[in-house]
Write a structure and sequence with these properties.
Elements (H helix, E strand, L loop, with lengths): L2 H15 L6 E5 L4 E4 L2 E4 L9 E5 L3 E6 L2 E6 L1 E4 L4 E8 L12 E8 L4 E6 L2 E9 L9
Antiparallel strand pairs: 1-4, 1-11, 2-3, 4-5, 5-6, 7-8, 8-9, 9-10, 10-11
Amino acid sequence: MRKSMRALCVLALGMACAHAQAETWRCFNDVEVACTWDGCSIAADGGLTPMDLAFSSEGGVSLCAYTGCWDGSGDVVARLPFLVIAARQLPWSDPHGGPDRERDVLIAFDPSDRVALVKAGAWALPLHCRPGDDGGEGTD
């Protein structure tokens, strides 16, 4: 199953167990930013890792890259003025996943301009978002 469809299926399942009024969002990146203790850098031309983020206002998270996704639920830390979700130790879904690939994921989303900022491992990414139920496709 394509990772974007997988992300939506995970969120739909999570929402079925959560509140019926949860909002869902799909987000994609145009740049890749990686940060370590000594600074941040932007990937050179052709070095972009396309990311596909799906999340719900109730804390469901699916962050996909390469051949898999970090899927699970996080705590909704804030709702206004930004939706902030903190997810601890999300498992990596590909067949080669293991505890060494689990990641903490932090999402800060501004619904006024539909921009999300995501921190996962070394990635520190801005992503542009749209409502998750619009059926659109991003960069796969």
